[in-house]
Structure formats: C-alpha cells, structure tokens
C-alpha cells in the first residue's frame, strides 16, 4: 500500500476490530504508517489479516504468518469519505494457499488532512501525602508540546494529560518521568511523548505564640538572683498538629547570668528543637535582680 505524499490521515468508519475471524474485518488504518486491514479465509482454515499488513493462517490461538497484503492503493487520495473494493486478486499468498473470500467486500474510509498545533501539558496527580503535609507546587517539563494528526482530532484537543503520578503517603518532593496519555485522542506528539512531573510536598506549617514560658537561670547560684520578668511569650513555627499541641512546659528558655550583677539585662535564649522553630521571644531580654534575703 502506498501512502499519499500530500500527507493525509486515514480514519476508519467501522466498529469492527481485529485481528478477526471469517466474517469480521479490521478497518482502522493510517496512511502515513502504511497500515491496512481486512479478513481472509481459505478452504482449510482461517486466514487472518492484522494491522501490520501480515496474513495469518490457522486458528487464532496458533497463528502462522503465510503472506503479505497490498490491496488498497492510497496514491492521490483526497480528504473525504471513500469506498475501496476488496477482492481476492488483491491478496498475495504463498503457493498452496487459496483465498476463498475477502470480508468485507469494500472498505469505507474517511480521510482527513494532517494538522498540527501546540497545546499545554497538564500533569495528573493521584493520592494524598501523609497527614500534616501538603502539595505546594506542581510543575511539568515540557509545559507545552506539538500534536499532529487528523484535523478534527487535533482541533478537538485543548490540552494533553500525563499518566498519573502518585504522591500517596509522600513526605518530600516527588519527581517522575511519565508518558503523555494519548491513547484515546487519535493524535501523536511531535518530538517525543514523555514529560517530567515534579510535585513539591512539604510539612504543613503554622505559627503560634505560647505564653507563660518559664526562663531558667544558668551560671548563678540558686537563691542569689532573680529574673524580672521570670517568664516570656514564645512564637514558634512548625507542623500544625505539633505546634497546636505545645504547652508552656514544652518550650525551654534560659539566660546565661554568669557574673552579671543585679540591674543588668541578659538575653533570653531558646533550646533548639527538631519539632519547631522559634521565631521570636517577648521580651527578648530580662533584668537580673538580687534575690530577697531571708531574715
């Protein structure tokens, strides 16, 4: 079979699929790829034609290639609906094999001009991250591709979609190369059909102020000095469920008094924690005072 040099897309107008047995036919064909379709039978057993242009003999469960077919000439075909007669004389088979019947006797096909355009790529995401995490960004490379195919199919697509990328139970970035899903679109991607999808997953963060956090003394003998005030308000940031459960006893503040005398100010510091980040302390410093003497 010869393809139209002008570049037409061949579209089937039948619901029959194959490879098929006697009485059925495959009628999906594409001129650019040199594909044709039909069903044939000899007097001994079934002879079946598939989408690659090969003839098979025998039952469907044990097929044997016995010949090639070249029965539809597409040279000079114009866009529109065309009817191609199919006869036994158009089928070439090896010696000893006789073509008794070609079904269907004619193949109705619709031709469309080849079209192309650039459309966006939309990534498809499935699943949910672990609790306390969320998706902050989704990107795909390339973000646009050029599609080609029958004019009606190309004009009917406003975007193409990737295969699903799972983020089920994810706690960090997910990056995956996937195929652009064109299984039911009737078009093809020019220059490659894969894309790289990147999904950014981070822990949900929130800020909260914990008040009345006690300030511990370091570097002073107990009972010699006091802090004014002795507690502070601490603003922390972290995972929502962690920060929401914090109490004043869960946050550790301290001051290094050393040899600081009464009346001096010292900076309030916080113990580091893997569960949260301290954003601010109010007040940021406190005054060292002399402890009252007992009488």
Which sheet architecture does the biggest sheet show? 9 strands, mixed
Shape: rod-shaped
The residue ranges in which pLDDT falls below 50 over 5 or more consecutive positions are 1-10, 12-70
Alpha-beta classification: mainly beta
Beta-strand content bin: over 45%
Oligomer: single chain
SSE run: EEEEEEEEEEEHEEEEEEEHEEEEE
- Please estimate the helix content: under 10%
Radius of gyration: 38 Å
How many domains make up the coordinates?
3
Count of β-strands: 23
Q: What number is the mean pLDDT?
A: 75
First and last CA, distance: 115 Å
Contiguous helical run count: 2
Explain the overall architecture.
With 295 residues, the chain is mainly beta. It has three domains: 97 residues, no CATH class; 90 residues, YbbR-like domain (RNA Polymerase Alpha Subunit, Chain A, domain 2); 86 residues, Beta Complex (RNA Polymerase Alpha Subunit, Chain A, domain 2), CATH 2.170.120.30. Helices cover 3% and strands 50% of the residues. The chain is built from two helices and 23 strands. The strands form four sheets. Strands 1, 6, 9, 10, 11, 12, 13, 14 and 15 form a nine-stranded mixed beta sheet that branches. The protein is rod-shaped and about 120 Å long.
Key structural traits:
295 residues, RNA Polymerase Alpha Subunit, Chain A, domain 2, single chain, 2 helices, mainly beta
Quick structural overview:
With 295 residues, the protein is mostly beta strands.
Topology (elements, then pairings):
Blueprint: E1 8-12, E2 39-41, E3 46-49, E4 54-57, E5 64-69, E6 80-85, E7 91-92, E8 101-103, E9 106-126, E10 133-141, E11 144-150, H1 151-155, E12 160-166, E13 174-181, E14 188-190, E15 194-203, E16 205-218, E17 225-228, E18 231-239, H2 240-243, E19 253-256, E20 265-267, E21 269-270, E22 276-282, E23 285-290
Parallel strand pairs: 9-12, 16-19
Antiparallel strand pairs: 1-9, 2-3, 2-8, 3-4, 4-5, 5-7, 6-9, 9-11, 10-15, 11-14, 12-13, 13-15, 16-18, 17-23, 18-22, 19-21, 20-23
């Amino acid at each position: 079979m010869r393809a139209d040099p002008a570049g037409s897309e061949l579209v089937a107008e039948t619901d029959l699929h194959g490879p098929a047995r006697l009485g059925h036919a495959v009628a999906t064909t594409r001129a650019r790829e040199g594909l044709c379709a039909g069903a044939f039978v000899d007097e001994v057993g079934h002879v079946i034609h598939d989408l690659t242009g090969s003839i098979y003999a025998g039952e469907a469960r044990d097929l044997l290639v016995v010949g090639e077919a070249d029965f539809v000439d597409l040279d000079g075909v114009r866009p529109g609906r065309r009817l191609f007669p199919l006869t036994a004389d158009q089928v070439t088979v090896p010696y000893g094999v006789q073509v008794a019947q070609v079904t269907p006797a004619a193949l109705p096909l619709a031709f469309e001009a080849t079209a192309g355009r650039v459309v966006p790529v939309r990534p498809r995401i499935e699943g949910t991250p672990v609790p306390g995490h969320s998706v902050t960004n989704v990107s795909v490379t390339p973000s646009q591709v050029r599609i080609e195919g029958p004019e009606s199919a190309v004009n009917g697509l406003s975007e193409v979609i990737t295969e699903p990328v799972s983020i089920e139970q994810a706690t960090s970035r997910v990056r995956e190369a996937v195929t652009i899903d064109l299984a039911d679109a009737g078009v093809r991607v020019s220059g490659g059909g894969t894309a790289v999808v990147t999904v950014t997953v981070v822990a949900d963060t929130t800020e909260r102020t914990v008040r009345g956090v006690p300030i511990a003394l370091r570097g002073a003998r107990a009972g010699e000095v006091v802090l004014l005030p002795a507690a502070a308000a601490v603003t922390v940031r972290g995972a929502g469920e962690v920060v929401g459960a914090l109490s004043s006893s869960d946050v550790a503040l301290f001051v290094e008094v050393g040899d600081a005398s009464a009346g001096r100010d010292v900076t309030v510091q916080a113990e580091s924690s893997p569960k949260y980040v301290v954003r601010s302390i109010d007040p940021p410093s406190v005054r060292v005072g002399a402890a009252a003497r007992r009488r």
